[in-house]
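Fold this sequence, please.
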Amino acid sequence: MQRPPEHLQPCRLPVPIHPSCPCAAVRAGGLPAASSASQPLVRGVRAAPRRGHQRAGWHGVGGRGRWQRPFDFPIPRPDVIHSEKLAPQGARPHGVRVGDLMFVGGHTSIETQGRLVGPGDIRVQTRHVLTTIETILALAGLGLDDVVKTTVMLTDWRHYSAYNEVYQEFFTAPYPARSTVSGSLGMPGALIEIEAIAMAGAHDAAVVVTSPEDQCPGDSA
């Protein structure tokens, strides 16, 4: 009897096989029963189920089988929160939380209808962006006190002082770690974009390294 090439021989790794998989019958020295019509036959051998096992190998006997790729286990879909408070962003979410860690994507001053808020006014745009980030965090069960890192992108360094004043209205000392860079933004008229990383419980558990002049009133030296 013709045998499949060596590289197509059944895998002999100790991986569990679903009982309905033809490999199980081949190892037992026989063929699956052909009387049941619950599953279709593939070239004389009953096809393996699309779910329930993950295995690659030669499914069949001799030259009558076929090579099959692994069947993937069902992957659970993540929870998705939809909110009318946020502007549509196409193929990218506003934020993703995995366990205690939360990533908030870069946001500009866009309202729910897709229009720019505060054209030419860095204070208005900064306030709107940080309010949006606060809303995203709240929807995921977090708050601004949980933010551990922000990245700020400005189109003009001359806006730094004004944006920084508004920034300190939302965050209190000890502040999150922050990076501020300057460059062009994709949204016409946008003066600022901010992204953030948060960790649940960071307000109580974080260790902040800072200089003495940045300490909160009452902190020890």
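The first strand starts at residue 41 and ends at 42. Strands lie at 41-42, 45-46, 57-59, 66-68, 95-98, 101-107, 147-154, 177-182, 192-199.
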